[in-house]
Specification:
Residues 155-237 form the Expansin-like CBD domain. This protein is of the alpha+beta class. The chain folds into 2 domains: 23-133, RlpA-like domain (Barwin-like endoglucanases); 143-239, Immunoglobulin-like, CATH 2.60.40.760. 15% of the residues lie in helices and 35% in strands. The chain contains 5 helices and 14 strands. The protein has helices at residues 2-18, 32-36, 59-62, 106-111, 118-124; strands at 23-30, 54-57, 71-76, 87-94, 102-105, 127-134, 144-147, 157-162, 170-177, 184-190, 193-196, 204-212, 215-225, 234-236. It is elongated, with a radius of gyration of 20 Å. The two termini are 36 Å apart. The relative contact order is 0.17.
Protein backbone atom coordinates (compact mmCIF):
# COMPACT_ATOMS: atom_id res chain seq x y z
CA UNK A 1 0.00 0.00 0.00
CA UNK A 2 2.80 2.43 0.90
CA UNK A 3 4.47 1.81 -2.46
CA UNK A 4 1.16 2.43 -4.26
CA UNK A 5 0.61 5.71 -2.41
CA UNK A 6 4.11 6.88 -3.25
CA UNK A 7 3.48 6.07 -6.91
CA UNK A 8 0.12 7.89 -6.80
CA UNK A 9 1.60 11.01 -5.24
CA UNK A 10 4.40 11.02 -7.78
CA UNK A 11 1.84 11.00 -10.58
CA UNK A 12 -0.07 13.87 -8.98
CA UNK A 13 3.11 15.86 -8.46
CA UNK A 14 4.21 15.20 -12.04
CA UNK A 15 0.86 16.34 -13.44
CA UNK A 16 0.92 19.46 -11.28
CA UNK A 17 4.50 20.28 -12.21
CA UNK A 18 3.86 19.84 -15.91
CA UNK A 19 0.86 22.13 -15.73
CA UNK A 20 3.35 24.82 -14.69
CA UNK A 21 5.84 24.34 -17.51
CA UNK A 22 8.18 27.28 -17.96
CA UNK A 23 9.66 27.63 -21.44
CA UNK A 24 12.73 29.64 -22.45
CA UNK A 25 12.80 31.54 -25.73
CA UNK A 26 13.26 34.90 -27.45
CA UNK A 27 10.58 37.41 -28.36
CA UNK A 28 10.49 40.35 -30.73
CA UNK A 29 7.94 43.15 -31.07
CA UNK A 30 5.92 44.95 -33.70
CA UNK A 31 3.17 47.53 -33.99
CA UNK A 32 -0.05 46.77 -32.16
CA UNK A 33 -2.13 46.93 -35.34
CA UNK A 34 -0.01 44.20 -36.94
CA UNK A 35 -0.86 41.59 -34.29
CA UNK A 36 -4.48 42.67 -33.82
CA UNK A 37 -5.26 42.32 -37.54
CA UNK A 38 -3.71 38.87 -37.60
CA UNK A 39 -4.46 35.29 -38.57
CA UNK A 40 -6.96 34.71 -35.73
CA UNK A 41 -9.39 37.12 -37.40
CA UNK A 42 -10.15 39.27 -34.35
CA UNK A 43 -9.40 42.53 -36.13
CA UNK A 44 -10.01 45.74 -34.18
CA UNK A 45 -11.85 43.76 -31.48
CA UNK A 46 -8.46 42.48 -30.29
CA UNK A 47 -7.51 45.98 -29.17
CA UNK A 48 -10.02 45.56 -26.34
CA UNK A 49 -8.46 42.30 -25.15
CA UNK A 50 -6.23 42.49 -22.08
CA UNK A 51 -5.42 46.16 -22.50
CA UNK A 52 -4.05 45.51 -25.98
CA UNK A 53 -1.25 43.26 -24.77
CA UNK A 54 -1.26 40.96 -27.79
CA UNK A 55 1.07 38.41 -29.39
CA UNK A 56 1.71 36.45 -32.55
CA UNK A 57 2.76 32.89 -31.70
CA UNK A 58 4.72 30.23 -33.59
CA UNK A 59 2.81 27.39 -35.24
CA UNK A 60 3.36 24.97 -32.32
CA UNK A 61 1.41 27.41 -30.11
CA UNK A 62 -0.96 28.76 -32.78
CA UNK A 63 -2.00 25.15 -33.59
CA UNK A 64 -3.78 25.93 -36.84
CA UNK A 65 -5.97 28.47 -35.07
CA UNK A 66 -6.85 26.40 -32.00
CA UNK A 67 -4.38 28.49 -30.00
CA UNK A 68 -6.15 31.76 -30.81
CA UNK A 69 -7.17 33.52 -27.62
CA UNK A 70 -4.72 31.57 -25.42
CA UNK A 71 -3.05 33.53 -22.62
CA UNK A 72 0.63 33.44 -21.65
CA UNK A 73 2.62 35.04 -18.84
CA UNK A 74 5.93 36.28 -20.24
CA UNK A 75 8.85 37.92 -18.46
CA UNK A 76 12.28 38.91 -19.69
CA UNK A 77 15.28 37.38 -17.94
CA UNK A 78 17.25 40.59 -17.29
CA UNK A 79 16.34 41.79 -13.76
CA UNK A 80 18.01 45.13 -14.42
CA UNK A 81 15.48 45.88 -17.13
CA UNK A 82 12.36 43.90 -16.26
CA UNK A 83 10.01 43.10 -13.41
CA UNK A 84 9.79 39.62 -11.92
CA UNK A 85 6.11 39.36 -12.78
CA UNK A 86 6.35 40.20 -16.48
CA UNK A 87 3.10 40.61 -18.40
CA UNK A 88 0.20 38.54 -19.71
CA UNK A 89 -0.46 38.44 -23.45
CA UNK A 90 -3.21 36.96 -25.63
CA UNK A 91 -2.50 35.15 -28.90
CA UNK A 92 -4.13 36.95 -31.82
CA UNK A 93 -1.85 36.09 -34.74
CA UNK A 94 0.54 33.52 -36.26
CA UNK A 95 4.27 34.22 -35.98
CA UNK A 96 5.99 32.74 -39.03
CA UNK A 97 9.49 33.67 -37.85
CA UNK A 98 10.95 30.62 -36.10
CA UNK A 99 13.71 32.69 -34.49
CA UNK A 100 11.25 33.75 -31.78
CA UNK A 101 8.34 31.99 -30.09
CA UNK A 102 6.34 35.24 -29.91
CA UNK A 103 6.18 38.63 -31.54
CA UNK A 104 4.56 40.98 -29.02
CA UNK A 105 2.80 44.26 -29.47
CA UNK A 106 5.20 47.02 -28.41
CA UNK A 107 2.95 47.92 -25.48
CA UNK A 108 3.10 44.32 -24.20
CA UNK A 109 6.89 44.26 -24.44
CA UNK A 110 7.23 47.55 -22.59
CA UNK A 111 4.84 46.31 -19.89
CA UNK A 112 7.51 43.79 -18.82
CA UNK A 113 9.99 46.57 -18.07
CA UNK A 114 10.93 48.19 -14.80
CA UNK A 115 9.79 51.77 -14.39
CA UNK A 116 11.56 54.01 -16.88
CA UNK A 117 13.14 51.06 -18.74
CA UNK A 118 10.52 50.52 -21.46
CA UNK A 119 12.54 52.11 -24.25
CA UNK A 120 15.65 50.19 -23.17
CA UNK A 121 13.78 46.91 -23.59
CA UNK A 122 12.53 47.97 -27.03
CA UNK A 123 16.08 48.76 -28.11
CA UNK A 124 17.12 45.14 -27.49
CA UNK A 125 15.13 44.03 -30.52
CA UNK A 126 15.28 40.36 -29.49
CA UNK A 127 14.57 39.77 -25.80
CA UNK A 128 15.40 36.59 -23.86
CA UNK A 129 12.31 35.52 -21.91
CA UNK A 130 10.68 32.71 -20.02
CA UNK A 131 6.98 32.04 -20.39
CA UNK A 132 4.17 29.70 -19.41
CA UNK A 133 0.57 29.32 -20.39
CA UNK A 134 -1.97 30.68 -17.91
CA UNK A 135 -5.78 30.74 -17.78
CA UNK A 136 -7.60 33.63 -19.46
CA UNK A 137 -10.01 35.56 -17.27
CA UNK A 138 -12.84 37.82 -18.40
CA UNK A 139 -14.68 39.31 -15.44
CA UNK A 140 -18.44 39.53 -15.95
CA UNK A 141 -17.98 38.48 -19.59
CA UNK A 142 -19.31 35.23 -21.05
CA UNK A 143 -18.01 33.46 -24.12
CA UNK A 144 -19.45 35.35 -27.09
CA UNK A 145 -20.06 34.62 -30.77
CA UNK A 146 -19.82 37.18 -33.54
CA UNK A 147 -21.73 36.42 -36.74
CA UNK A 148 -19.28 37.09 -39.57
CA UNK A 149 -20.09 39.16 -42.65
CA UNK A 150 -19.57 36.14 -44.92
CA UNK A 151 -22.72 34.54 -43.44
CA UNK A 152 -25.67 34.24 -45.82
CA UNK A 153 -28.89 33.16 -44.18
CA UNK A 154 -30.12 30.44 -44.67
CA UNK A 155 -27.25 29.03 -46.74
CA UNK A 156 -24.14 29.72 -44.73
CA UNK A 157 -23.22 30.63 -41.16
CA UNK A 158 -19.80 31.69 -39.88
CA UNK A 159 -19.16 32.66 -36.26
CA UNK A 160 -16.11 33.93 -34.42
CA UNK A 161 -15.54 32.99 -30.78
CA UNK A 162 -14.59 35.81 -28.40
CA UNK A 163 -13.67 36.08 -24.71
CA UNK A 164 -12.84 32.41 -24.15
CA UNK A 165 -11.87 31.92 -20.53
CA UNK A 166 -9.89 29.18 -18.83
CA UNK A 167 -6.92 27.40 -20.33
CA UNK A 168 -8.43 25.39 -23.14
CA UNK A 169 -8.74 25.12 -26.90
CA UNK A 170 -11.94 24.72 -28.91
CA UNK A 171 -11.39 21.66 -31.09
CA UNK A 172 -14.92 21.07 -32.38
CA UNK A 173 -18.21 22.98 -32.82
CA UNK A 174 -21.75 21.79 -33.57
CA UNK A 175 -24.90 23.85 -34.14
CA UNK A 176 -28.59 22.91 -33.94
CA UNK A 177 -31.99 24.52 -33.68
CA UNK A 178 -32.90 25.15 -30.04
CA UNK A 179 -34.64 22.04 -28.70
CA UNK A 180 -33.58 19.84 -31.64
CA UNK A 181 -31.31 16.76 -31.35
CA UNK A 182 -30.15 17.17 -34.96
CA UNK A 183 -26.68 18.73 -34.85
CA UNK A 184 -24.68 20.06 -37.80
CA UNK A 185 -20.90 20.06 -37.58
CA UNK A 186 -19.00 23.28 -38.19
CA UNK A 187 -15.47 23.49 -39.58
CA UNK A 188 -12.71 25.89 -38.62
CA UNK A 189 -12.42 28.40 -41.47
CA UNK A 190 -9.34 30.05 -40.00
CA UNK A 191 -8.22 31.26 -36.59
CA UNK A 192 -11.19 31.67 -34.26
CA UNK A 193 -13.78 31.51 -37.08
CA UNK A 194 -15.98 28.44 -37.66
CA UNK A 195 -18.48 27.93 -40.47
CA UNK A 196 -21.11 25.58 -41.92
CA UNK A 197 -23.31 25.43 -45.00
CA UNK A 198 -25.83 23.27 -43.12
CA UNK A 199 -27.61 26.04 -41.26
CA UNK A 200 -30.55 25.00 -39.07
CA UNK A 201 -33.64 27.20 -39.05
CA UNK A 202 -34.95 29.04 -36.02
CA UNK A 203 -33.00 30.08 -32.92
CA UNK A 204 -29.69 28.28 -32.60
CA UNK A 205 -27.80 26.45 -29.86
CA UNK A 206 -24.12 25.47 -29.93
CA UNK A 207 -21.93 22.86 -28.33
CA UNK A 208 -18.16 23.22 -28.20
CA UNK A 209 -15.69 20.40 -27.68
CA UNK A 210 -12.78 21.77 -25.67
CA UNK A 211 -9.57 20.40 -24.24
CA UNK A 212 -9.85 19.90 -20.48
CA UNK A 213 -7.62 18.09 -17.99
CA UNK A 214 -5.70 15.52 -20.01
CA UNK A 215 -8.76 14.77 -22.14
CA UNK A 216 -11.69 16.97 -23.14
CA UNK A 217 -15.29 17.93 -22.44
CA UNK A 218 -18.33 19.43 -24.14
CA UNK A 219 -19.62 22.92 -23.34
CA UNK A 220 -23.29 23.41 -24.24
CA UNK A 221 -24.66 26.88 -24.95
CA UNK A 222 -28.41 26.30 -25.14
CA UNK A 223 -29.69 29.68 -26.36
CA UNK A 224 -27.25 31.78 -28.40
CA UNK A 225 -28.49 33.08 -31.77
CA UNK A 226 -32.08 34.30 -32.15
CA UNK A 227 -34.16 33.35 -35.17
CA UNK A 228 -33.42 36.77 -36.72
CA UNK A 229 -29.62 36.73 -36.19
CA UNK A 230 -27.74 39.45 -38.04
CA UNK A 231 -24.29 39.67 -39.61
CA UNK A 232 -21.78 41.73 -37.68
CA UNK A 233 -23.52 41.41 -34.31
CA UNK A 234 -22.02 39.81 -31.18
CA UNK A 235 -24.18 37.42 -29.16
CA UNK A 236 -23.68 36.29 -25.56
CA UNK A 237 -23.47 32.49 -25.31
CA UNK A 238 -24.69 32.50 -21.70
CA UNK A 239 -21.75 30.30 -20.66
CA UNK A 240 -18.07 30.73 -19.96
CA UNK A 241 -15.22 28.20 -20.22
CA UNK A 242 -13.22 27.98 -17.02
CA UNK A 243 -11.58 24.58 -17.49
CA UNK A 244 -7.84 23.93 -17.43
CA UNK A 245 -6.10 21.74 -19.99
CA UNK A 246 -3.07 20.11 -18.40
CA UNK A 247 0.24 20.32 -20.20
CA UNK A 248 2.13 17.08 -20.78
CA UNK A 249 5.67 16.64 -19.54
CA UNK A 250 7.45 16.30 -22.86
CA UNK A 251 7.20 19.98 -23.97
CA UNK A 252 8.72 21.24 -20.68
CA UNK A 253 12.08 22.93 -21.07
CA UNK A 254 14.86 21.63 -18.89
CA UNK A 255 17.19 24.62 -19.05
Amino acid sequence: MALFLCFLFSLIFSATACNRCVHHAKVAYTQQSAVSNGACGYGSLALGFNGGYLAAAVSSIYKGGAGCGACFQIRCKDPNLCTKRGTKVIVTDLNQNNQTDFVLSSSALMAMANKGKGQDVLKLGLVHVEYKRVPCQYRNQNLALRVEEMSQKPYYLAVKFLYQGGQTEIVGVDVAQVGSPNWSSMRRNYGAVWGTNQVPTGPLQFRMMVTSGYDGKTIWAQHVLPDDWKNGLIYDSGVQITDIAQEGCSPCDVS
